[in-house]
């Protein structure tokens, strides 16, 4: 088990893997070249993964009430939430930061049905696959990049995502700096797994970063370092996957539910 000493290094990984269209040949009648057929999103991911980014357990998503928000890497704009006073619905929930809470009781809104920290350790105990072939969309553009995680129901002893014992006792070895290696491709039987797209995150300046490169998904658990106002997040890239503490007031990760109103984690 390796330690992740600094999560922001994920921002330095490879560039976005976007699906592009190859232009048809512009030759004359004798040109036999056929235009390439653009890749189509997998039927399960054909919808746009928008409106899914939140500060931890915020009541509303990050760009609620804002038009023309960024949906491409490197694009940023103002009107992002800046404080609980000016943006009470979009700002993180700071009500339960005085103590460590592993259960759902820590979250009340957008992170309420995300897995607790204990459940996330079980997802790391199963096989994990990095998949750069499954196509999904964001802002009308096609991307690849994401992970297949084994469903809790397929992991012996895992229990459920609301309350379960830890798969491992991370407390003996810096629990929030734990990560594991991944397999490449798709699992043979995808019915035993579920897919999380690498949706990136919005930075502190309202810039979208990391789409197609990494994913950050909130848990329902607050972190140990309450004086920094932290919560646990589940992160992954092509190189690593793990659980880490994230500073609530500065970060914006994926939470809520999928666009089809189903849970992110299964």
How would you describe this structure to a colleague?
This protein has 266 residues and is mainly beta. The chain starts with a strand and ends in a 12-residue tail after the last strand. The chain has one domain (39-60, 98-266). The strands form 4 sheets. The protein has a 5-stranded antiparallel beta sheet with strand order 1-5-12-11-10, covered by helices on one side. The chain has a 4-stranded mixed beta sheet with strand order 6-3-4-7, with no helix packed on it. The protein has 1 helix and 13 strands, in the order E-E-H-E-E-E-E-E-E-E-E-E-E-E. The protein is globular.
Q: Quote the average pLDDT.
A: 75
How large is the radius of gyration?
Answer: 19 Å
Q: N-to-C terminal Cα separation, in Å?
A: 24 Å
How much helix, percentage-wise, in residues?
under 10%
């Amino acid at each position: 088990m390796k330690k992740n000493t600094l999560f922001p290094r994920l921002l330095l990984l490879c560039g976005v893997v976007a699906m592009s269209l190859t232009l048809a040949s512009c030759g004359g009648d004798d040109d036999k070249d056929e235009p390439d057929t653009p890749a189509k999103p997998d039927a399960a991911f054909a919808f746009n993964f928008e409106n899914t980014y939140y500060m931890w357990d915020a009541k509303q998503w990050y760009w609620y009430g804002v038009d023309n928000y960024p949906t491409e890497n490197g694009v940023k704009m103002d009107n992002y939430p800046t404080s609980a006073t000016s943006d009470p619905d979009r700002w993180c929930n700071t009500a339960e930061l005085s103590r460590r809470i592993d259960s759902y009781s820590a979250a009340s809104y957008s992170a309420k049905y995300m897995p607790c920290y204990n459940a996330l350790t079980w997802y790391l105990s199963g096989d994990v696959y990095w998949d750069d072939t499954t196509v999904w969309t964001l802002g009308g553009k096609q991307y690849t990049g994401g992970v297949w995680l084994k469903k809790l129901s397929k992991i012996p002893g895992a229990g459920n995502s609301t309350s379960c014992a830890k798969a491992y006792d991370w407390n003996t070895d810096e629990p929030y700096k734990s990560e594991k290696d991944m397999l490449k491709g798709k699992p043979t039987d995808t019915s035993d797994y579920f897919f999380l797209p690498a949706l990136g995150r919005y930075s502190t300046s309202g810039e979208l970063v990391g789409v197609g490169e990494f994913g950050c998904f909130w848990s329902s658990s607050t972190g140990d370092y309450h004086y920094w106002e932290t919560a646990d997040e589940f992160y992954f890239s092509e190189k690593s996957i793990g659980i880490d503490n994230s500073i609530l007031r500065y970060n914006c990760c994926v939470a809520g539910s999928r666009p089809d109103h189903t849970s992110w984690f299964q």
